[in-house]
Design a protein that fits this description.
The complex is a heterodimer of chains A (496) and B (139). Chain A is mostly helical and 496 residues long. Chain A has 21 helices and 2 strands. Chain A has one domain (2-492). The chains are: A mainly alpha (496), B mainly alpha (139). The interface between A and B is medium-sized, with 21 and 18 residues.
Chain lengths: 496, 139
């Protein structure tokens, strides 16, 4: 039964894509069906999370082919948490989209593509097979290409060309690395790999494959120096689309990094963690400095995605249990906060007429409720207590100090300070400053936009004020990740 | 494009390509074949039709709008997973039944075939939709 919960995390969004395609000629029915299937995915993800928490790892051998010969779906706590958070983000953004998209966007297959995207994201989180992970990456990428250009403006096409080109390079590297690994070990089942990789004698080729894989995932996760496609494209699509991208897509890359580094490439931690630590520090700093130079809502936020990815990679690079707790906590907190900030940017644009901070202003006077809703995720992002970002940053930095990695801890603190600078810039320009074209009319925003924003803000507050249960989940995740043999045993059975 | 040779050749080639695509679909994955490749061959027939007689002709080959074909295909592929749930097996476990033709001859029919038919339709539908979009002239 639990196995089906894992399978359904992929099958429900695919079914959502099928029914929204069939209901293409019926606008109202399509919207309702789209939301229904997103809600069903959330239900399934919650049940999956509960099952994993209660009974431990959920493993199912798809098509009844035994591991390592078939494709295993293997959901540990990390996979379940990520699936749940993806489902929450997906539902919130689809709800927001019902008020944002017009008939043209709808006719350009917004709903089917969104569900295919969710299928790809959830598939990446539940699979236990490296090649299958590649397939889900492709699925989510193809859907994201389509979503990125819905609307068909010049800026979107420009952003999409960069996005497509770089992501194609990344997937090619992924495929190359997969081929090398298969040649070295004869298996692609991740659990089997975790046993086979330490036995590989040709460590030169193995490290080359590991590096290719890290580069591929690093590109998806937008780490330094492979991030420039992200700020070049994320400010162009529909707001709901950019919110899903901002929340989920780079985090799929981070997830894949965490999975492969903790499960598969455990043979030479010194070397891999060294590379990751440098990457993390440079990612944090370049991201936040890039944001300081920007003057457009979504461009600022895009650069902040990059800098925040640095914190997650930093936790992974330090590699102690506490550091991984921090990484996982950061991942969850960040998805909610970042998706929400993009949605708020959309409402701000509706009210002031522009995403450019220069041509914006007067929001505090016109819409104080929006100011409060912005304050919560923005200052959580900057790491103000007691919001969720404070705990995330606190744990990662404490882990760094415990390991006497003073430089990276300092980089993290500086990045936090500069994040406050960016957030106060948006606050000052968009909310406090009077609008250059006279006072902003208080028109309000559709309920379909406000409700998801408020719900995500509530998540941020809950994670911040009642951090203990979330920390317990992150601790269990870290315990699982630091013991790959348990993962292997759960998937393969208790063989040698 | 208006070319007498292309149009005459298409009339002969398009049906052959469709036949080949069905053959590939039926042969399945144990030899070169399967729904994806079959779908691509069928879509190439539609592409040929589109180049020779215009995008409207390519769309007419499908009877339904391309998006609906893809939707039906996706639904069929998902439907093929339902039996494995009914029998309490892991997702996508293959189930076969034999259609007896007498004299010990039979046709094996199973959920993988339905899945592949679904894939076939998804590929045909989406490729034709893409071709139609590329051929579409904005006003």
């Amino acid at each position: 039964m639990n196995g089906w919960l894992a399978g359904l995390a992929v099958l429900i969004p695919l079914a959502g894509a099928a029914v929204t395609l069939l209901a293409h000629g019926l606008p109202r029915a399509q919207t309702v069906l789209s939301l229904l299937f997103a809600a069903a995915l959330l239900l399934d993800a919650s049940l999956l999370m509960a099952a994993v928490w209660r009974d431990g790892m959920v493993v199912v051998q798809a098509s009844a082919w035994d591991a390592p010969f078939g494709i295993s779906l293997a959901v540990d706590t990390l996979g379940a948490v990520m699936t749940l958070i993806a489902a929450i983000t997906g539902l919130a953004c689809l709800a927001y989209a019902t008020a944002e998209i017009d008939e043209g966007h709808r006719r350009a297959f917004f709903h089917p593509l969104s569900h295919v995207l969710l299928a790809g994201v959830c598939g990446s989180f539940v699979t236990g097979d490296l090649f299958n992970l590649y397939v889900w990456f492709e699925v989510l990428l193809i859907a994201s290409f389509g979503l990125l250009v819905i609307g068909g403006t010049r800026a979107q096409t420009d952003g999409a060309v960069k996005y497509v080109a770089l992501n194609l390079v990344a997937t090619s590297l992924f495929l190359l690395a997969t081929g090398l690994i298969y040649g070295l070990t004869g298996t692609l089942n991740m659990a089997d790999l975790s046993r086979a990789v330490p036995r590989v004698e040709n460590t030169g080729v193995l490290n080359a494959a590991a590096m290719l894989l890290l580069a591929a995932f690093g590109m998806k996760a937008a780490v330094f120096p492979l991030f420039f496609w992200l700020p070049a494209s994320y400010h162009t699509p529909l707001v709901a689309v950019s919110a899903v991208f901002a929340g989920l897509l780079t985090k799929v890359g981070v997830y894949a990094l965490i999975r492969t580094v903790t499960l598969i490439f455990t043979h030479d931690p010194e070397w891999i963690n060294g590379v990751l630590l440098w990457t993390a520090g440079l990612t944090m700093l370049t991201g936040v400095l890039g944001a300081a130079a920007q003057n457009e809502w979504r461009r600022i936020l895009s650069f902040h995605i990059v800098s925040q990815i640095g914190y997650m990679v930093m936790g992974l690079a330090i590699g102690t249990k506490l550091a991984i707790v921090g990484s996982v906590f950061y991942l969850v907190h960040h998805i909610v906060v970042k998706a929400n900030l993009f949605l708020i940017a959309g409402v701000a644009q509706r009210l002031t007429g522009s995403m450019e901070l220069k041509r914006s202003g007067g929001l505090y006077e016109a819409a104080p409720w929006l100011a409060i809703l912005f304050f919560i995720p923005a200052f959580s992002l900057a790491g103000f207590p007691p919001l969720s970002g404070f705990w995330a940053k606190f744990i990662v930095i404490k882990a760094a100090l415990d390991e006497r990695s003073i430089a990276i801890a300092a980089a993290a603190l500086v990045t936090g300070l500069l994040t406050i600078y960016s957030m106060t810039k948006i606050w000052g320009e968009a909310f406090w400053k009077p609008h250059p074209a006279g006072p902003v009319e208080e028109t309000g925003a559709p309920r379909a936009m406000v409700v998801p924003i408020a719900a995500l803000a509530a998540c941020t507050i809950v994670i911040g004020l009642f951090a203990q249960p979330f920390l317990a989940v992150a601790e269990r995740t870290a315990a699982e990740l630091t013991d790959p043999s348990a993962y292997a045993a759960a998937v393969l059975g208790r063989l040698p | 494009m208006s070319s007498l040779i292309l149009r005459a050749a298409t009339r002969a080639l398009a049906p052959l390509l469709i036949l080949l695509s069905l053959f590939l679909l039926w042969r399945g994955h144990n030899e070169p074949g399967g729904g994806f490749i079959g779908g691509l061959v069928a879509a190439s027939a539609a592409a040929l039709q589109g180049i020779a007689f215009g995008p409207a002709a390519a769309r007419r080959m499908l009877w339904l709008p391309p998006a609906a074909v893809a939707g039906v295909g996706l639904a069929a592929a998902l439907l093929s997973i339902v039996p494995s749930a009914l029998f309490g097996l892991p997702p996508m476990a293959a189930l076969w039944s034999k259609v007896d033709l007498g004299d010990g001859a039979y046709i094996p029919l199973g959920t993988p075939l339905l899945f592949d038919v679904g894939v076939f339709l998804v590929v045909v539908g989406s490729v034709v939709a893409l071709i139609a979009a590329l051929e579409h002239k904005p006003e």
